[in-house]
Amino acid sequence: MLNRFGVGVALAGALLFTAPPAQADDVRGGQRAVIKTLRLTEAWRVSKGSGVTVAVLDSGVDPRHRDLAGSVRVGKDFTEGANPPGTSPSRLHGTYMASLIAGHGHGPGGKRGIIGVAPEADVLSVRVILEDEEPGFREFNSDERFENVVARGIRYAVDEGADVINMSISKQLATREERAAIRYAISRGVVLVAAAGNEGDRKTDGAFAPYSYPAAFPGVVSVGATDRRLRRATFSNWNSSVLVAAPGVDIMGAGPGDEYWVGRGTSQATALVSGVAALIKAKYPDMSPPLVARALTDSATDRPPGGYDTATGFGVVNAARALTEAARLAGHTEVATGPETHNPARPLAGGRKGPVTVVVRDDRLVTVYTAISAAAGVGALASLSVIFVLVRRVRREQMSQDA
């Protein structure tokens, strides 16, 4: 569902509840394919995301989930006023994404439950969307007060010290305020990662799937989803904004109230890529967003013929290889991509350093940003993505033996 501003994000899809795993060990077992594909075990020998804050711009994160407890800071709610007074947010989608990024598990040695890509990273929860079952969803999607919640959320996250901003959200129309907010974030060294969208089955002019925002903005790492064979998932949008891809089918994650879910979508793929970006920023905190994007693309596996296509971008993200590539790039001078200037005598909000106006001359870097920027002017063709489809729900009471 969209309002006239293209603000809303509908979290919809077919729900299929099946028999849950009997033990929490099965939850971790359900993550084996992702851990193997991203080569996380090897990556964790180098970085686990310590010291990095990932802002999750979403429907809210449950800070009490046992796999996230102690890692979540609840930030501002930009949807306030849409729901009736006293309504508690469901926070399903946001908790799910946060767990994929920074879940640390629970139990002895943290070996039960969800382990995120960057298990030592912190999460800043910034609520910018309502889930479709919330009573204020219709008002949120029709009231101009909420037109620029994403832009305001981005600026807030930057000023609160975020190193990476995860946006597993998608909408039809771009706004000037969002473009300015993204420029502001990149100029402050913040990596932005967003979902390419889930309308891959709906072609536009027979050539590509719709563009969605904020993923299609220049400078944002736009993420597509792959299936079990690491090919483009049928629902994943395919167009020239797609930079990289990650697994997006049958992805195990956490839900509010110590629940566990399995779902599919470019949302999940985006969260995994944000986790890899967090690993890089933890190891190389001064690495600029363009060089982080370069590390992700140059290290990708399952690369398409010719090195790039609109289905999976430069290929499937690989955490271990990305850290190796980041180490090679770390000797480069930082790239500044935003126009803001800064007085070094005055620290930025969140203690962030000001941008440095130098340029790295590198043809391959230009190639990466050509792929991103090719979609910059196609706002009218963009379309709302269904963020995910849940296919299995594991309730806490059904896993009580592992508490």
UniProtKB/TrEMBL annotation:
According to UniProt, the name of this protein is: Type VII secretion-associated serine protease mycosin
Q: Name one GO biological process term.
A: proteolysis
Q: Which gene encodes it?
A: mycP
Q: What is its main location?
A: membrane
Q: Where in the sequence is the signal peptide annotated?
A: 1-24
The Peptidase S8/S53 domain extends over 49-315
Native organism: Nonomuraea aridisoli
Give any Gene Ontology cellular component: plasma membrane
Membrane topology of this protein = Single-pass membrane protein
